[in-house]
Amino acid sequence: MIELRFYRPKDFQELTYVLDSVQSQYTATANQALEKIEIRNQKGDFSAFPVTLFYNGKAVGFFVLDFGEDKFEFTENSDAVLLRSLSVNPEFQGKGIGKSAMLEIDHFLKNHFVNCNEIVLAVNEKNTQAFQLYIQTRYLHDGKMKIGRCGPQFVMRKNL
Question: CA–CA separation, 92 vs 16, rounded Å?
């Protein structure tokens, strides 16, 4: 069973998993993402919300819902959210957890951010496994690209 909850410091120990060299090219670890959020918070920017992904009660994944200005690189919609830093503990990959989480995000947003009506994200063009996951969970790629830290990225979106 998949459950999403806003990140709590007590979740951190289970989120210290290590991504392989390929995955770490494409996404931040929970620790890296939390450090960036803390820097933003110190500057008065409280628009990024870390979320922990639970599978059968165990913290196995992490992502950030970012309502800040960065989303405007992907959309003109002020009611959109940028999904970033998604990862699943490698020990739990291949069980459909990522796919279930991507579907559950819709409900999570509707419950906690009622004005949000679009999710945007970027995925590296070489990260074909993640791209297919997003396609399977009804994200659309309309041809828009962005240059990321590791090369070209597909910009994807999903209306809620």
Answer: 14
Q: Per the structure block, which two tokens stand in for 109?
A: 């947003």
Cα 144-115-145 angle, rounded to 5 deg: 10
List the structure tokens of 13. Answer: 């120990």
Q: With bands split at pLDDT 50, 70 and 90, how would you rate the model's confidence at 151?
A: confident
Report pTM: 0.94
Q: And the tokens for 42?
A: 């110190």
- Integer Cα distance of 34 and 12 in angstroms: 10
Radius of gyration of the chain (CA): 15
Given its phi and psi angles, is residue 143 left (phi above 0), alpha (psi -120 to 50 degrees) or beta? Answer: left
Chain segment 44-79, per-residue pLDDT in tens: 999 999 999 999 999 999 999 999 999 999 999 999
Nearest to 51 by CA among 5, 84, 1, 109: 5
- On whether the CB atoms of residues 135 and 95 are closer than 8 A, the answer is no
